[in-house]
Amino acid sequence: MSNLSGAQISALALNLIDSVPSAISGTVMAEFADQSRLLINNILRVSIGSNAFSDAYQNLAVNLTAFKTLSRMTGVGANYNWTLGQFSVNKGASSNTDELQAKMLLDQVNMEILGLQQNNIIDTANAARFRDATQKV
Fold it and tell me: Looking at the DSSP assignment, which residues form a beta bridge with residue 87?
């Protein structure tokens, strides 16, 4: 694969979620992709440019972007508590399918961090810091 842009990351994230409202798809999802890039850069201490998501970080960025999108979609009317770095949604407890999908995405993010660590792409301290930042409240 080659480097992907933030717009390409958000387009791939869009494919993971059913019925994304037009008010969220497009510009908002592109902003989520950029926020995901910044989170990856800051926590993992790497340097990813807005048009330079390398193979190693593409799945992580896609899943973080999908998580942020799903969190925005379910933020009104859904009841759940999630935190991802500085981004958090606190609404109680729920069992709806959007919540389950968000949890699956967050679990996938943590598995990808473990894979990056095992492949020596990131060190143990950065992996632990990222897992701590993405723990469920």
Answer: 84
Whole-structure pTM value? 0.70
Q: Give the rounded distance of the alpha carbon of 99 from its chain centre.
A: 14
d(CA 36, CA 41): 9
Q: Which residues contact 72 (CB under 8 A, 6 or more apart)?
A: 24, 28, 32
Contacts of residues 116-125 at CB distance under 8 Å and 24 or more positions apart, as own/partner, are: 116/44, 116/56, 116/57, 116/60, 121/56, 122/44, 122/46
What average pLDDT does the structure give for the chain? 78
Any residues with CB less than 8 A from the CB of 71 and at least 6 apart, and which? 82, 87, 89, 102
